[in-house]
Amino acid sequence: MCCLPTFFYDYRKGAKRVRGVCSACGQEFELAGVRHNAEGSCPCCGRKFTMKSNQKRGRIWDRETVSVVQRLRENELVVRILKASRWQARGCSAELDFYEETRIVIRQTKPGKFDVFPYHYSPYDAVLTPWKTGYPPVMYLYGQNFNAETCGYLYTRNLSRELKGTPWQYCQLDAFYEGIHDQMEAAPYLAAYPEIPAIEFFVKLELFWLASQIVYRGNSKDGRQLINLQGKNLRDVLQIDPSDLPWLQRPGSGVQDLLLLRILRREGHLPDGEFFFGSSVECVGKEN
């Protein structure tokens, strides 16, 4: 279960409104009817939160995963997986700690073929280097290993510089990251792009879900080829009419919408809202 953001405030006896900060958006504002551990919603970002008095709260603690992409050679990149944590005890200054846990090298092994070589930090039994081949263990004895997570926020300020002059110069990784509005694994995207340059085309068309499908799930849907990667135009690649593109650019679009558009075009229908928001599941099930 995901924890709610927090509204931190300083308690004032008899005050009808108190000033505090929303941890989701960082905005400061006044709120009425505030009680410790009660739930409310932020008037700035709309997120629900839990109210916490600074006089009663315990230690604040959080941690995140961040990916940093760097160039090693012209045909070789490394994705550094950093772990960052921050905590603040009541009445104390915040403390920040970060460390590099995993390195994922993406290297050209043959013409047109790029492979992934992961390494993880392990100081135990270190001889020449503490960096060992492979990913960290996913599970500890009593739970999941946070250090094994490679999905996280992407540092984008250095991307244009690091990718310039490499096979990834036009890969649109930063645009894809901004488009999905979520954390991501950078290594699979970078490994797939040189072999499937059409990913750049999908991202420029704002078909972020389709690029994600190809990178992380492959070009298939129930054993069928989803798109024609050898096509020369939009009609060849997606097997739909170019005028259908806005339907696939809507937030929440996905594979089922693409399959539905193909059915409609095959049967001579024009797409409209009734098809997409009404009986899409029933229609998609009819495709052979």
Model description:
The protein has 288 residues and is of the alpha+beta class. It folds into 3 domains: 6-57, no CATH class; 61-211, no CATH class; 219-284, no CATH class. It contains 10 helices and 11 strands. It has helices at residues 159-163, 173-180, 186-192, 198-204, 208-216, 234-238, 245-248, 255-266, 273-277, 280-284, and strands spanning 6-9, 17-22, 28-32, 39-41, 48-53, 60-73, 76-88, 95-110, 113-121, 131-133, 153-154. The strands form 2 sheets. A 6-stranded mixed sheet has the order 10-9-8-7-6-11. A hairpin with a 6-residue loop joins β7 and β8 (95-110). The chain starts with 5 loop residues before the first strand and ends with a helix. Mean pLDDT is 87; it is low at 279-288.
Characteristic terms for this protein:
288 residues; alpha+beta; 3 domains; 6-stranded mixed beta sheet; 5-stranded mixed beta sheet; 10 helices; 11 strands; 23% helix; flat; disordered C terminus
Task: Give a short overview.
With 288 residues, this protein is an alpha+beta fold.
